[in-house]
Amino acid sequence: MLEQLRVILFRPKYPENIGSVARACLNMGVSDLVVVDPYNFNMEKALPLATVHAKHVLESARIVETLAQAVDGCTAVFGTTARTGGWRKGIMNPETLTNVVDERLRSNGTVALVFGPEDKGLTNEETSVCSGLMTIPTSREGTSLNLAQSVVVTLYECFKKSLNGPFIPDGPPEERPATVQEQETMFHNFQDTLLAIDFLKDDNPEYWMLPVRRFFSKINLKRNEFNLLMGVCRQVQWFIKKNEPDSLSRK
């Protein structure tokens, strides 16, 4: 039911939590589990928490070295965080996130949910690849959730939304969404172009690009739209280069 939803555990510390997450994935109809650079992973410790029912989910989980490898092929990535403020703006709750995820899944995209290490969560650098961030509200007496608890709460909301029934499009298939890698390529191109026209400040362009990234995170960017924006960037950069003072003096 949620075949195109991917759960990514980024540098989890305890194999037992990985096993519990595998069981949560099975409970909520998710089979795509990816673990990034786990600390001291031990299948024997993880299996009892997965139980015999989710053994196949755990054993088929892919273990990769980097977050970039984990999100390969995804069209949207959403990270989880307990920290707010600073660079972390527009943070969603699970219900709001579910509406966005459902929209992306219904457009035939592959969506990833990224959960950070148990002790410190995702850093600003790691969240920079995310289309959006989510936090799970808790009481002030206990603000820390176990990794598997966070996963099951989030997937439960996604599962509930999916029960509304499968999306059957009318007419020809819709243009596929742009992958995360394509979006990153576009952002780098966009940044270079905005620097070239002095729209961004040279001192910290990544920071000044954040509003641009947030704007595009609200859009389910399609491949043909990606091609259009890349073409605009190429044309602007070509025009600037063509009309540089040095090139004009050579004419």
Notable traits:
disordered C terminus, six-stranded parallel beta sheet, Helicase, Ruva Protein, domain 3, Alpha/beta knot, 251 residues, 47% helix, 12 helices
Write the layout of secondary structure elements.
Layout: E1 5-10, H1 15-27, E2 32-36, H2 43-50, H3 55-59, E3 62-64, H4 67-70, E4 76-80, H5 94-106, E5 111-115, H6 124-127, E6 132-134, H7 147-162, H8 180-196, H9 205-208, H10 210-217, H11 223-242, H12 245-250
What this model shows, in words?
The chain is an alpha/beta fold. It folds into two domains: 5-162, Alpha/beta knot (3-Layer(aba) Sandwich), CATH 3.40.1280; 180-250, Helicase, Ruva Protein, domain 3 (Orthogonal Bundle), CATH 1.10.8. It is built from twelve helices and six strands. A six-stranded parallel β-sheet has the order 3-2-1-5-4-6. Helix 5 (94-106) links the parallel strand 4 and strand 5. Helix 1 (15-27) runs parallel beside helix 2 (43-50), helix 1 (15-27) runs parallel beside helix 7 and helix 8 (180-196) runs parallel beside helix 11 (223-242). It is elongated and about 70 Å long. It starts with a strand and ends with a helix. Residues 166-170 and 247-251 have low confidence and may be disordered.
Q: Concise description?
A:
The chain is of the alpha/beta class. It contains 12 helices and 6 strands. 47% of the residues lie in helices and 11% in strands.
- Any idea how many domains? 2
Structural shape: elongated
Strand content: 5-15%
Strand order of the largest sheet: 3-2-1-5-4-6
Radius of gyration over C-alpha positions, nearest whole angstrom:
20 Å
Number of E strands: 6
Alpha plus pi helix count:
12
Kindly identify the CATH topology of the largest domain.
Alpha/beta knot
Largest beta-sheet details? 6 strands, parallel
CATH-defined architecture of the largest domain: 3-Layer(aba) Sandwich
Global mean pLDDT? 86
| Helix-and-strand structural type | alpha/beta
